[in-house]
Design brief:
Belongs to the Toll-like receptor family. This is Toll-like receptor 2. The chain contains 16 helices and 32 strands. The chain is of the alpha/beta class and about 775 residues long. Among the domains are: about 120 residues, Leucine-rich repeat, LRR (right-handed beta-alpha superhelix); about 100 residues, no CATH class; about 190 residues, Toll/interleukin-1 receptor homology (TIR) domain (Rossmann fold), CATH 3.40.50.10140. The chain has a 21-stranded parallel β-sheet. A five-stranded parallel β-sheet has the order 27-26-28-29-30.
């Protein structure tokens, strides 16, 4: 943010106001009057140069005030009786900003201060306070009066030093001041002891500190050595150094270290870096292992080796995590009879069996060898101490053979992320095992509990488990917590048993904290198993087959009933015919119409069917604009021309010909025209120009044998069938209109009506009427 002044639109009920990391340079007396209920005010990391505490006189409920990391040049005090946290650290003041008003803040618990000069008189004003934490954030330190810090009465003291500051006196006085002392940024180009001249300054009296924390330390090895020697003879019990860098030549080693007279119990070195790499290992390693304390941690130090004294030590806790230790560390005899916890996480260890020899001479209870390169390839059994109850072997290279090298009395075993496929049946019974982690392995089935009778917690997440064996459900009745998520479970029967296990009154939960998700069944993918109900049919294959057959029969009968009742085949056939006709019409080109086509359609029918033709067929095809040209036939003839010739001409001048088929039509001599049609393009070029409408069913035996082509067409069902159900007529007419929908070539002429008046006996009962409408 980039605020340059305090916002004016603050609500009166505001209790917490954070204006940190802005550009505030000045505070006005009226900035906080409207928020009288304010309890927390954070103004750190701004550009404030002058602070008048009286600005907050109306904020009686203020408990927390942070004005650190500003550019304060002066502070005008005003007593805030209720204030508990006040931070004025990291500022540019020459002296520590403490006055008489500060001494009236009786509820103060945390105080952050800063100043280039620190004197006893500054702290005497607050010597009567029982503070919880005092924080000295120093940007510069030009003068420190020895004995100033011990005046403070605080439980915790944290000092952040400027770069290249002689910390020696501050460390001395700090250890005399508080129970917990933390010093950050210790950086000296030369030894801090050159100004003292003798080792007598390594002796401290009236020490109070029991926990000493050093952070971000950059010293030579000898400087670090002398710090350990100083602390060794004080009241410090817990000594931790984080982010330490050291180098330089080694002049002091374990032989010159005084290990006597100490209360030290724990030393921790974390995140250690070396400026040079030719430091004698014996000088460094033995300095720590000969300290003979209870707890030692040297982690993230890129340490390739570790040496131990030849005599027994009283170490109970050793942590060498995040180093590069190899098997060579344990090839020599190491005497750690009191060791209970050993952490070797993230190193370069390779042989599990070698660790067995080392551990057998200890009282080890907890062993962490995770994130190494460990494996166990031989068939030899291992003899671990009977006291070992917790073992972490996760993220290694173990196969199934690891079960031959496990402690007999193990209670918690972590084998996460290895190469385990199965649990061998011939392994030793781990009768005390309560918690087992198989996550991220290659198990294809859940292990039974025949070897783990007391197993309570089992984790098999992210394996390759496809099914849940019956042996598991029968042998793992005592399991209370089971984590099996992210496995490709298949089948319903095993899942049903799995759910029953989750309903066991002894089980707290099924699947742990994560949802149990399998690849199949797909309908159960996602939800937690404890909320899934599976019917019996999902587990019985025979019942599933019977159910499927019954369902198929019922569906088949339902489809057959619908087909018969609603005549669905007829609808499908009509739709197919309409589609085929529509496609053929779209492909019709003007080249196909080059013959002298003058009519859309020629209609031929029996005189017996004339009523249907007059009242059904023609009205359905005519349009109001008269654009459809139709040729019809009735019982008249033109005396000037034969009926055969006239019919032939009409067919040739029509785009398509409709023949209304019925038993009466077949019984007439109309079929005798067929030899004449053979000379026309109607039969010669394509069947697409002829439309047969079956008005009434015609048995094939009714068609004379001398008309084979007509019989062949009837056998192929190449016709449109007139529906007896009036509800189907709409689709029938749509199909017929689609067949006739085409743009004819431009024609000219006059409309005429031709009739045939002379009838031969051959054509009696059937007539032709040619009607041309709307011709130009």
């Amino acid at each position: 943010m980039s605020l340059r002044k305090v916002p004016e639109d603050l609500t009166p009920i505001t209790t917490t106001l954070d204006l940190s990391y802005n550009l505030l340079s000045q505070l006005q007396h009226s900035d906080f009057h409207s928020i009288s209920k304010l309890k927390v005010l954070i103004l750190c990391h701004n550009r404030i140069q002058e602070l008048d505490i009286k600005t907050l006189e109306f904020n009686k409920e203020l408990r927390y005030l942070d004005v650190s990391n500003n550019r304060l040049k002066s502070v005008a005090w005003f007593s805030l009786a209720g204030l508990r946290h006040l931070d004025l650290s990291f500022k540019d003041l020459d002296t520590v900003p403490i006055c008489v008003e500060t001494g009236n803040m009786s509820h103060l618990e945390t105080l952050g201060l800063s100043g280039a000069k620190i004197q006893k008189s500054d702290f005497q004003k607050i010597a009567h306070f029982h503070l919880n934490t005092v924080f000295l954030g120093l940007r510069t330190l030009s003068h420190y009066e020895e004995g100033s810090l011990p005046i403070l009465n605080t439980t915790k003291l944290h000092i952040v030093l400027p770069v290249d500051t002689n910390f020696w006196v501050l460390l001395h006085d700090g250890i005399k001041t508080s129970k917990i002392l933390k010093v950050t940024y210790i950086n000296l180009p030369k030894s801090p002891f050159t100004s003292y001249g003798s080792q007598q300054n390594l002796i401290l009296e009236n020490a109070k500190t029991s926990i000493l924390l050093l952070n971000k330390v950059d010293l030579s090895w000898d400087d670090l050595f002398l710090i350990f020697q100083l602390v060794w003879h004080t009241s410090v019990e817990y000594f931790q150094i984080q982010h330490v860098t050291f180098g330089g030549k080694v002049y002091l080693d374990h032989n010159s270290f005084d290990y006597s007279n100490t209360v030290m119990r724990t030393i921790k070195l974390e995140h250690v870096h070396f400026r040079i790499f030719n430091i004698p290992q014996e000088s460094v390693y033995l300095l720590f292992t000969k300290m003979d304390i209870e707890n030692l941690t040297i982690s993230d130090a890129q340490m390739p080796h570790m040496l131990f004294p030849m005599y027994p030590t009283r170490f109970q806790y050793l942590n060498f995590a995040n180093n590069i230790l190899t098997d060579d560390v344990f090839k020599k005899s190491i005497q750690l009879p009191h060791l209970k916890t050993l952490i070797l996480k993230d190193n370069k260890l390779e042989t599990l069996y070698l660790m067995n020899y080392f551990a057998s001479n200890t009282s080890l209870r907890h062993l962490d060898q995770s994130e190494n390169l460990l494996q166990h390839e031989n068939d030899e059994n291992c003899l671990w101490p009977e006291t070992l109850v917790t073992k972490n072997l996760s993220f290694n290279k173990f196969a199934d053979s690891v079960f031959r090298c496990l402690p007999r009395n193990i209670q918690i075993l972590d084998l996460k992320s290895n190469k385990i496929q199965t649990v061998p049946k011939e392994i030793t019974h781990l009768t005390f095992l309560r918690e087992l982690n198989f996550a991220l392995n290659f198990l294809t089935g859940l292990p039974g509990c025949s070897h783990f009778k007391k197993l309570l917690i089992l984790d098999v997440e992210m394996n390759l488990i496809l099914s849940l064996s019956l042996d598991f459900f029968q042998s793992c009745q005592e399991v209370k917590t089971l984590k099996e998520g992210k496995n490709p479970f298949r089948g319903h029967w095993e899942l049903k048993n799995f759910i029953q296990l989750g309903k066991n009154p002894k089980a707290r939960r099924v699947g742990g904290s994560n949802p149990n998700i399998g690849k199949t069944p797909s309908n159960l993918r996602g939800p937690q198993l404890k909320g899934v109900h599976l019917p019996k049919i999902s587990c019985n294959t025979g019942l599933q087959i019977v159910t499927i057959v019954v369902i198929m029969l019922v569906l088949g009968m339902a489809v057959a009933f619908c087909c018969l009742h609603f005549d669905l085949p007829w609808y499908l056939r009509m739709l197919c015919q309409w589609t085929q006709t529509w496609l053929r019409v779209r492909k019709t080109t003007q080249e196909q119409l080059k013959r002298s086509v003058q009519f859309h359609v020629f209609i031929s029918y029996s005189e017996h069917d004339s009523a249907w033709e007059k009242y059904e067929l023609i009205p359905s095809q005519e349009k109001e604009d008269g654009s459809v040209q139709i040729c019809l036939h009735e019982g008249n003839s033109d005396p000037g021309q034969s009926k055969t010739e006239d019919t032939k001409n009409c067919i040739e001048k029509s785009y398509k010909s409709i023949f209304v088929l019925s038993p009466s039509f077949v019984q007439t001599e109309w079929c005798h025209y067929e030899p004449y049609f053979a000379h026309c393009s109607l039969f010669h070029e394509s069947l697409d120009y002829k439309i047969l409408i079956l008005l009434e069913p015609i048995p094939l035996y009714c068609i004379p044998t001398r008309y084979p082509k007509q019989k062949a067409l009837m056998e192929k069902k190449a016709y449109l069938e007139w529906p007896q159900d009036r509800r189907k007529c709409g689709l029938f007419w749509a199909n017929l209109r689609a067949a006739l929908h085409v743009n004819l070539l431009d024609t000219t002429g006059t409309c005429e009506l031709q009739t045939f008046t002379e009838l031969n006996e051959v054509f009696r009962g059937s007539a032709v009427l040619l009607i041309r409408k709307n011709c130009l």
